[in-house]
Protein: 3'-5' exonuclease domain-containing protein
Organism: Panicum miliaceum
Amino acid sequence: MTVLYADGGDLPADLKRFLTEEDHIFTGAHIENDVKRLRDDFGITISNPTDLQLVVPKAAPRYEYLGGPHPLFGVRRSSLKKVARAVLCLPRLCKPEGADHDNWHSWYLLPSQVKYATTDVYLSYEIAKQLEIKDGYRF
């Protein structure tokens, strides 16, 4: 999920309605912070957030290696790139470099940040779609 900035510090009403629809499912990698930020900054409660880093290892036995205990935190999260490589069968997948932790609080995003964010959103969508098609996973 990508958190958007809008003029006047608010989001358009149509986007708010879309984000809060109960029958919509929002997938992503480590999306808890995005969900919290939407709630805290805009009063939006996402009904069905799904962290693919936690779901995929449980969706089918062939993905179990993507999960497992972390020595400090109890949960290991494979990167979205690693999850996408496995689920989408894209062993050479490359994501845009250098934008993953850049200044996302800036009023204007750099083209590299927009490319990085849209790649994450598209990969998340495709991973969820393939889990439903190939593995019969129900969100």
